[in-house]
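Troubleshooting log. The previous structure file for this entry was overwritten by mistake, so regenerating from the original sequence record. Sequence copied from the archived sheet and checked twice against the printout by T.R.
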Amino acid sequence: MKDGISGVLFQKGPGRLMRMKFEVRGETLTVVEVRELGAENFQDFRERVRAAMLEKLRNIEIDLSQTNFLDSCGLGALISLRKTANSRNGKVRLLYPNPRVLLLFDITRMHNIFEIVKRGSSS
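Regenerated output below.
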């Protein structure tokens, strides 16, 4: 994959497809258009992101601005991707979660292990 955006489709439940896109810039893989991350798709999500992590990539950014559902399986996938990035001396940044998803990160104390960029913050 060269720098730019590439669409990826994967199964989400019986007969339904979920779409997400990858963007590569420098040493960072950005994942966008993740609408749901839960028990039905967390394994596919995790494996697709890992497969997109070319050797030169260290960091993962996941745009959660369109994510309207996240459960404990989805949190587990994010933690697993954090381990992948850490093994490359990189990090995972979670971008623009909506208030409901942000509340889940606060309740589970995930805000202590992830860098979370809120809408309107400068970084």
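The beta strands are 4-11, 17-25, 28-32, 36-37, 59-63, 69-70, 92-95, 115-117. Archived copy saved in two places this time.
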